[in-house]
Amino acid sequence: MVVAASLLLTGCFATASAPADGEQRLRVVMMQPPRSGLSPLSDDAFKLSRWSTAETLVTLDANGEPQPALAEKWRWSDARTWTFVIRSGVRFHDGTPLTAKDVVRSLRRAATAAPKPRILDGVDLAITGKGHTVTVTTATADPLLPQRLSSPQLSVLAARAYKSKTVDPIGAGTGAFILKRVDGTSSATLDRNDDYWGGRPKAPGIDVRFVPDGTARAAALRSGEADIVEAVPVSQASLLEKDQITEVPMPRTNTLYLNTGRGVFRDPAMRAAAREAVDAGPLVNGVYEGRADVAEGLLGPAIPWAKQRPERGRPTPAGDPEGRRVTIGTFTDRAELPEVAAALQQQLDKAGFRVKLEIREYANIESDALAGKFDAFILSRATVLDSGDPAAYLYSDFAGDGSFNISQLADRTVDKALEKASSTPTGAARRQAILEAEAAVLGTDAAIPMLHERVIQGDAANVVNSAKDPRERLLVTVDTHVG
Fold first, then answer.
1. What's the confidence (pLDDT) of residue 2?
2. If we measure between CA atoms, which residue out of 132, 177, 122 comes closest to residue 387?
3. Where would I find the Solute-binding protein family domain in this sequence (predicted)?
C-alpha cells in the first residue's frame, strides 16, 4: 500500500509541479480528503484556509486576538450590534469586486445553513450591508463576534459560489491562490493570484494530494516527492531528518467521549469507573513516543491560562463494571487513534468492562458517532479551532443543543456554565468562566481527556516560510515557496 501510494504521488506531481519561469510549484500532501466538496460550510473550510484561497473578514494573531483581513476595521456599536468596514480594492478570483453585498450573502448562507457551522451554535445573526459597510446584529450581546467571523467556515466567496444548493469555492475566493480544479477526493490544483490584495505570492501554485495513510505521507517527504506534508504520524517522525519536522504544542485533545444518553455509560457510576480505569501515561509514552502531554483537563498547554483552572468538586464514586459490554468507536485517519483504542481496550477490560472496538475511516463513522450509536468514542479534537476561544468548542461538544455533542450530554448545570462562558466579555472574566464550564463538563465524566497532541509537520529542506500553525488554519501563505 505504501509503495502504491508513493507511486501515485509521483505520477500526480511529476507533470503538475514543473517549474514556471524558474519557480517551483509547491507539492503539498494532506491527510483528510474533502468530505463535502470543499464547501466552506463544512470542515473542508480549513483546507481552503490552509491553501490561502478563501478568506474571512477577520483573522487571529498568536494570542487569539482579532486582526483585520477582508474587514479593515470594526466597532461595537451597541450591546448587540457590530459594524465592519470592508477593505477596498479587493477582487474575487473571477474578477468581480468585493462589496458589502458579497459579505452579506456569504454570512447569511452560513447563518441559515442546516446544520449551521459550529461557530454559530446558539448564535442568531441578522446581517445587512451597503457599499463597504456591513452591520451584524446578534439576538443577544456577543462579545466574541469578531473572533467568530475569523472561522474559515465563514469565508466570503463570490456570487458564483452560491448558484446551487451546494457552495462551490472553485474560482470564487479572494486569497493568494486561486482554486482551479478539484479531482474528487484525490487532488486539488491552485494557481498564483497575481492580483492578490496582500501582495504577489512567491510560489506559482500549489498541487495538493490527499493521502489518508500516514506512512505514505511520510514516505513522500523522505523520497522527495512532496514539499510539505501535514500531520506526520508520531511513528514516522523519528524516520525523518530532524530538519524536516517541526513539533508544536497544539490546542488538540485526545478525548474519550462517553455516551450519557443510553447504554452502560448512562449510569454516572459506570462513567466514573471508566475514568478511573484510563491511564494516559502509557498512551503518551507508548503510542505517542513521548510526543504529547498527559491531559489535566480538556484544555491543554497550548492555552497557557488553562493552568489556572479551579478546584474540581468531589468526583462521582466508581461502580463495578461487572463484565458490562461496551463498544468504542474511532477512526483510521489519525494513525495513532487505533493504537490508542487498542490500549484503552486493555485498560478497560482489566477494570472489568468487556470492550469491542469499531474502527473505520472518519467519513464513514462520523454520522454514527453523532447519532449516539457507540457507547464511547475516541476523538482527536481541536479545542480552539474556530474562534481562537474554547467557549465555542465547549458549547458545540457539550451543550444540550450543541451540534457536535457525541456524548449526548444534556445537563442543566453544564448548559448554564456554557451560556455564562459564551456571554462573558473577553478578558480575565471570560477565561475564568470558560474554566468553570470545563470543570462542570468534567464533573459529569461525559468526557475523559487523555492527552494533548503536538502538531508534527514535515517540510523539505528547501521549503521557505511554510506556516506552523497550532490552530491548523494556515499552511501555505503568500510568503511560502521553494528556495
1. 41
2. 122
3. 65-402
Burial class (CB in 10 A: 0-12, 13-18, 19+), 425: exposed
Name all domains of the chain by residue range, CATH numbers in brackets.
1-53+175-227+460-483 (3.40.190.10), 56-156 (3.90.76.10), 249-454 (3.10.105.10)
pLDDT of residue 295 exceeding 50, the answer is: yes
pTM confidence score: 0.75
For residue 152, give the nearest of 366, 385, 467, 395 by alpha carbon: 385
Q: What is the pLDDT of residues 127-185, one digit of tens each?
A: 999 999 999 999 988 888 999 999 999 999 999 999 998 999 999 999 999 999 999 99
Is the Cβ–Cβ distance between 58 and 149 less than 8 Å?
Answer: yes
Question: 3-class secondary structure for the chain?
Answer: CHHHHHHHHHHHHHHHCCCECCECCEEEEECCCCCCCCCCCCCCHHHHHHCCCCECCEEECCCCCEEECCEEEEEEEECCEEEEEECCCCECCCCCECCHHHHHHHHHHHHCCCCCCHHHCCCCEEEEEECCEEEEEECCCCCCHHHHCCCHHHCECCHHHHCCCCCCCCCCCCCCEEEEEEECCCEEEEEECCCCCCCCCCCCEEEEEECCCHHHHHHHHHCCCCCEECCCCHHHHCCCCHHHEEEEEEEEEEEEEECCCCCHHHCHHHHHHHHHHCCHHHHHHHHCCCCEEECCCCCCCCCHHHHHCCCCCCCCCCCCCCCCEEEEEEECCCCHHHHHHHHHHHHHHHHCCEEEEEEECHHHCHHHHHCCCCCEEEEEEECCCCCCCHHHHHHHHHCCCCCCCCCCCCCHHHHHHHHHHHHCCCCHHHHHHHHHHHHHHHHHCCEEEEEEEEEEEEECCCEECCCCCCCCCCCCCCCCEEC
Cell 441559515 sits at which residue?
Answer: 112
Which of the four pLDDT bands, split at 50, 70 and 90, describes residue 385? low
Condensed to tens digits (0 to 9), the pLDDT of residues 390-426 reads 988 999 999 999 989 999 999 999 999 999 998 888 7
